[in-house]
Fold:
Amino acid sequence: PVYEGRMPLAGVKRVSESSVNWRVVRCAVKDSLRRTREGGNRSAQRKLACFELHVLRSGAVGFTRSGLLSWFGMGRRVEVVDYNNYRSTGHAGRFIANTPDRAVSLVTSSSYEALRAALPGCAISDGDIGENILISGPSHCAGVHLDIGTRLRVGGQLELELTEANKPCYRLAYVRWAANAERLLGERWWESPALPLNCEHTPGGRGWLCKVVVEGWTRPGDEVAVIQLDAEAEEGDEEAKPKRKKRRTAAEKNGHGARA
Structure:
């Protein structure tokens, strides 16, 4: 199948056959008010699940239902603008405030599967590590299915490009099951090489940060596919060639060298 959305690079884009069974599992956001009420920098990163997500270059806007009828998928439609304090304030020497390269975060279900296997007895729920979009299908290990520069089509039009392997945050200390994790692996348990969250040992295990190439909508159940440029289109895309040559994989950025 050919991707027919708006294409910022010249040429035809095709869906990788290896990603035909990938799906969106969960969409989530958290606004600044909710973050403050939950404790700000001393709160868990888990976001509020939403039935639909509008993904923009500036970030994500989620839609939930309020009232008693929300249990039945009905009720008043509520808009929630996602807020990320770290992205909003920037980091000197790393990225500017509100950088488009960190518009949304994405995690694979295999990260949660590996986390549950490594932390028996911890009641880990999807969404606990704070992603905007959770997808099933690809491996959480960089270089297997996903890596820096991978482009994904999510739903009918939304297109994301993976820009960075996400790193574990100290706010993982505030998840509901943190005490059990600390008992098993120590105070800063999220840095343990035994867990997929450690970006130096398992880039991609904590998920990915993404920029939005084509804005669009998504919801749980949507198909997810890798977008590839035709060889002829890639050869004709002179402007993009230098960028591809300079791009480093997540493993290289973390000092592991290129993966085979």
Summary: Residues 1-11, 232-236, 238-245, 256-260 have pLDDT under 50 and may be disordered.
